[in-house]
Design brief:
5-stranded mixed beta sheet, 2 domains, 13 strands, 6-stranded antiparallel beta sheet
Length: 183
């Protein structure tokens, strides 16, 4: 089946079959759809971003992540993802920079990252003014390991005593992750 004239090329009429037209349209649409996915990521509204509290160091507490070096692949890194539901925008690259937080009962979302493996959990921390805290972790993530979990807790860096209970996060391989579909 021939499609009516679609245009001309160097003076000659270009006639395409339906299959050729669909194929050419597909070749144009596929890259377009893929490039749309590469558009600017949605930004987090300012009211949902964590703002470091103002105040003297002695009137605030600090919280820092932790990292275990790995000779194979990437390091094991924990960091503060959110404080009281507000996203910490500095991300995993700032795991070693102490994050000032207000004293009091805080809901801290901590995250684990190693290559494509990741997880996160919420921990409740009773922070005191001048307190210095660090995220600790234990995981079965290994090069040829089970890669099932990461346990998190927060310690007081002066005493190394736990300041929270342990919470377990199930590791997700973000390369193979398929979100659940509601039925």
């Amino acid at each position: 089946m021939q499609v009516p004239e679609l245009g001309s090329k160097t003076g000659k009429l270009l006639k395409l079959t339906v299959n050729e037209a669909v194929m050419r349209l597909g070749l144009l649409l596929v890259p377009t759809v893929l490039l749309v996915g590469c558009a600017t990521p949605l930004s987090i509204p300012p009211e949902l971003q964590y703002v470091v509290p103002a105040g003297q160091k002695s009137s605030l507490a600090t919280l820092v992540g932790s990292q275990e070096k790995s000779p194979i692949l990437s390091d094991f890194t924990t960091y503060v993802l959110a404080v009281d539901g507000k996203r910490v925008m500095s991300g995993p690259q700032s795991w070693s920079i102490p994050l000032p937080i207000q004293p009091g009962l805080r809901n801290i979302t901590v995250a684990f990252l190693r290559a494509s493996l990741n997880t996160q959990v919420d921990l409740r921390l009773q922070a005191v003014a001048g307190g210095e805290y660090q995220i600790q972790f234990s995981t079965d993530a290994q090069f040829f390991g089970a890669n099932k979990y990461c346990d998190f807790w927060i310690v007081d860096t002066a005493t190394q005593k736990p300041m929270t209970g342990i919470r377990r996060g199930n590791l997700i391989n973000s390369i193979r992750y398929s979100p659940p579909v509601d039925d």
